[in-house]
Amino acid sequence: MYQDRRKVIVIGGGLVGSLCACFMGQKGYHVVLYEKRSDLRKDSYMRGRSINLAISHRGRVALRSVGLEETVLGSAIPMQGRLLHGKTGALQSMPYDPVFNNCIYSIGRNSLNEVLLNAAENYDNVKVKFDHKLVNADIRRGVIRVQNKTTTEVFEETADLIIGADGAYSVLRSAMLMTPMFQFNQTHIEHGYLELYIPASSGDKMTPNHLHIWPRGQFMMIALPNKDTSWTVTLFMPLDNFTSLRDEDSIMYFFENIFPDAVPLIGKNSLVHTFLSTKPSQLISIKCSPHHFGSKFLIIGDAAHAMVPFYGQGMNSGFEDVSVLSELLDKNHLEVKEIIKLYSEMRVQNVQAVCDLAMYNYVEMRDLVMRKSFRARKAVDEVLYKLCPKIWFPLYNSVSFSSLEYRRCLENKKLQDKIYSLLVGVLLLSFLFVFINILRY
Ligand code: FAD
């Protein structure tokens, strides 16, 4: 798209939308960002909550492009690996990348959003309008309808490029749903999640610089560190199990039996209070195709590919969407309609692959990590990765520490699984052969 001060509208000032506004601002476009909520930087309730996310390579690359990587990582906490908590309280560390020492980082969602909004507003050509909600879109006419929530006035708007970064329940995507050949698939998994909290006063008893996991087969609990030594804890569990925990006795019985070492850290009162006052949140996975419509509409981030959070790639893949779009926009000879079509062609398969990987990783985190077969495979992966990193690229490393297309990461995994099964098969047959020969003589 020619940088002759064309107009871009971004809908949604969450993580992906506000980063997108920075990229578009940097390119010199006139940018208007509409966010339905009020400004979180002025909202004392939002400021008080610390919910964190893991940022990895793809997210960092995008932040680097707009000069924000250092600022963001400056307030993030490195996590070198998983720390598994057994039922008896036994701990086991599982580094993410013992070969090249790469790590992921825990960052506060709100502070990251604040950094991104501040950066977007620093561009003179970016206007952020809070309390402005996309009501609907007449995508055939190329216009959107926005409501100013303060005055309740609804007005029509248009631009050369309109980007929906309005999250998993995207209004722009709903408008695209009505168009011919638009594919849409939505899955609510039967597991939900509840956020708990380890305060700074007991957080220093937790081993730092790890993502803590309490894997329990059908469900799990995880904890990510905050800067003040507190930890944000998330319990993922079938929704039916949440329903059965209705009173103090059942909650405490459950925790003391399943997560005994976490009870003193979270504290009984806080545990019971959170359970009795909060409904578990649902988890949704959304795939759709294409991600564009006509000559100007595009959806990115959760609006285009919401995924279950188990690979820590929702935001990272959304940030990568922005990097990919930005590279295409720099191809000056292309028109917007060609760019967004090309974007869809490049991106759909990749983000659908990471949605599948995210589903798989829940099983890995809550169950497989405890199995000897998983650990044996991880050890083999690490040896082969060290010996021939260009040929044997383990799944977690390719997803979290590289920009390899997600579908290639998935294809690699499938191929490696086959080779590994073959190796194990050959090994077992050789043992059998030796064993039979010993018996014969
Ligand atoms: P959102 O964050 O949902 O933002 C959408 C924005 O659009 C919001 O500000 C909303 O108010 C606004 N909006 C909505 N509708 C309208 C409208 N009609 N008009 C105007 N504005 C509108 N990802 C990771 O990479 N790493 C992690 O570790 C990680 N952990 C997670 C843990 C949990 C429990 C969950 C649920 C998700 C996790 N994710 C993680 C995923 C990550 O949170 C999302 O992928 C990311 O927030 C998506 O950003 P987004 O901007 O696309 O959408």
TrEMBL record:
PROSITE patterns: PROKAR_LIPOPROTEIN. It comes from the Eukaryota. GO terms for molecular function: FAD binding; kynurenine 3-monooxygenase activity. Coiled coil: none annotated. The keyword RNA-binding does not apply. It is a multi-pass membrane protein. Its EC number is 1.14.13.9. It is found in: Mitochondrion; Membrane. Pfam families: FAD_binding_3. Residues 7-356 form the FAD-binding domain. Catalyzes the hydroxylation of L-kynurenine (L-Kyn) to form 3-hydroxy-L-kynurenine (L-3OHKyn). Required for synthesis of quinolinic acid. This is Kynurenine 3-monooxygenase.
